[in-house]
Amino acid sequence: MAKKKRLGEILMDAGLINDTQLSAALHSQRTWGGKLGSTLVRMGFVSEAGILRCLSAQLRLPSADFQKISVSPKATQAVPFSIAEKYNVMPVALKEELGKKTVILAMSDPTNLDAISEIEFQTGVRVRPVVGAESSITQAIERYYRDKNFKKGYGFEKRLDLAALGDAEEMVILSGGAEHTVSTARKPDPGALAKALIKVLVGKGILSEEELEDALRETS
Question: What sections of the chain are H helices per DSSP?
Answer without folding.
Answer: 7-13, 19-32, 36-42, 48-59, 73-78, 81-87, 113-123, 134-141, 148-150, 190-203, 209-219
